[in-house]
Design goal:
alpha/beta; 39% helix; 16 helices
Length: 500
């Protein structure tokens, strides 16, 4: 029996080596093609609506209603130059000659602060039966095990196109699926991350790639067989690989700590220092489940928030994702350090994780942003109202945030958490990223225009987005994506490839 086992193991080892070599050879070809695609998309990312081939971007958009941060203003013209807003003029009764008309409520482009693009393949599949986060995670691992750089590019391109259709102009991609199954690096060690960057470019949206350190299965536990492709083995090795990633016009590079259970305490500072040296965003899953808190207390005698504070992780460029099960001390630590909070209500309720103390966190000084996380749905309006409505259910009290505050969480504060503090406003100098919500759909028709912000937050859905503009370029026009011809078809094909 021992001889049989050794023979079988020898065969498996040889097969693994052959598979790794096949992956490396194929990846060399795929990397070259994705680089060409990224170059094409990156060039397209700077649209020239008017002007010479080498001249600055110029465009004019006229909207019958625009949200200017405090109120809805009728008859607004937004002038674009160089991909940024050059001017905002009010009281323009009729569209100027040559202007593109955006009818509805025009908002700053929305920011999806927390995304796992490959989770889009889980939609509906994980709604069968019962369970917890931990049983859901096993299904997630199965999909993750089938992804290659090519199939990840296809899925992410389609998912990011869906985001554009939902009015999202920037995404924070919490990326930890780095290597081939078994942990073998690709010929390009950042093949998976580069696929995501190229996918966002071809879908026409901005991305902050939050390259994630994921080194352990739990406190003192090595990665399990599924997690081997997530792990760089040490934080230093993670930093070396992540340092090879480059920012571009549409892409920023940030860092992430998957969680305190996935990065040993003595290596947390390495990730924090990497982000600090680059003045880059740093995100972390924080206290998403009670089991995480219990395990941290058992291993270190403190909460995850205290552990992060003690190792220099908290701060104004850091965002804790979920921040669900917190003590009063945790809330004070996050608030006093200006560490952000990204709430993901549709995922938190889908996974039965709980309702985080968003009101208390904001009052303590933690800026709020929103993310679609597992993509049970991709709809930032739903995330915004869910944060308010969840709090109403918890407290039996209405009106914790105004529509203006919820829109800010879905835009300006989200962009700031992704390393773009100048975005998310309709002001001169800001990126020319816009989204327009219809005010004449069955969901939005009826209310007077001055209540259009309340209509968008509490009644509209992603299906009501008519236009999305990124860097002055019309990415979604009249509800149709201008770069990805058939988004539903692309989604269906990409998902089917992973379940076939």
């Amino acid at each position: 029996m021992q001889l049989t086992n050794r023979t079988a193991e020898t065969n498996r080892t040889a097969e693994t080596a052959r598979a790794a070599e096949t992956n490396r050879t194929a990846e060399t070809n795929r990397t070259a093609e994705r680089a060409r695609a990224a170059e094409r998309a990156g060039t397209a990312q700077a649209p020239r609506t008017a002007g010479t081939a080498d001249g600055p971007v110029t465009a004019t958009y006229w909207t019958d209603h625009a949200w200017l941060g405090t109120h809805v203003e009728p008859d607004v013209t937004v002038e674009v130059a160089g991909g940024r807003i050059a001017g905002v003029r009010t009281g323009v009764r009729t569209p100027p000659s040559g202007a593109t008309v955006l009818r509805g409520l025009t908002l700053p482009g929305l920011a999806n602060t927390h995304s796992h693009a490959f989770h889009r393949a889980l939609r509906a599949t994980v709604q069968v039966g019962t369970g917890t986060f931990w049983t859901w995670r096993e299904l997630m691992y199965q999909v993750a095990s089938r992804l290659t750089p090519d199939s990840y590019f296809d899925l992410a391109r389609a998912a990011y196109a869906e985001m554009a259709l939902a009015g999202i102009t920037a995404v924070g991609e919490f990326h930890y699926l780095h290597h081939a199954p078994g942990g073998t690096p690709y010929a390009d060690p950042n093949a998976m991350g580069e696929a995501l960057i190229a996918a966002a470019a071809e879908a026409g949206i901005r991305i902050t790639l939050l390259d994630t350190a994921y080194l352990a299965a739990g406190f003192g536990e090595p990665p399990n067989r599924h997690q081997l492709r997530f792990s760089d083995t040490t934080a230093d090795a993670w930093a070396e690989r992540a340092s090879l990633l480059k920012s571009g016009d549409h892409a920023l590079i940030g860092a992430a700590i998957h969680s305190v259970r996935a990065v040993p305490a003595d290596q947390l500072a390495t990730v924090a220092r990497w982000a600090e040296e680059r003045e880059a965003p740093l995100h972390v899953h924080l206290s998403e489940q009670l089991a995480e808190n219990d395990a941290c207390l058992a291993a270190h005698g403190c909460t995850p928030t205290r552990l992060l504070a003690d190792h220099g992780v908290l701060g104004p460029r850091t965002t804790g994702v979920h921040n669900t099960h917190l003590t009063q001390e945790d809330i004070a630590l996050l608030g006093s350090s200006s560490t952000g909070t990204c709430m993901c209500p549709t995922t938190e309720r889908d996974l039965a994780d709980g309702i985080g103390p968003a009101v208390a966190l904001q009052k303590a000084g933690s800026p709020l942003s929103l993310g679609s996380d597992s993509h049970a749905v991709i709809d930032l309006f739903e995330e915004a109202r869910a944060m308010e409505l969840n709090e109403r259910l918890r407290t039996h009290t209405r009106g914790h945030w105004t529509a203006a505050a919820l829109l800010r969480a879905a835009s300006a504060d989200g962009h700031a958490a992704l390393g773009r503090p100048d975005a998310g406003v309709l002001e001169p100098g800001a990126p020319a990223d816009l989204t327009t919500v219809a005010l004449d759909s069955v969901r939005t028709a009826g209310p007077v225009p001055r209540l259009a912000a309340e209509t968008a937050v509490f009644a509209a859905s992603a299906a009501d987005v008519r236009h999305t503009v990124v860097a002055g370029r019309h990415i979604v026009r009249d509800g149709r994506h201008t770069l990805v011809e058939d988004v539903p078809g692309a989604l269906a094909a990409a998902v089917a490839a992973l379940h076939g």
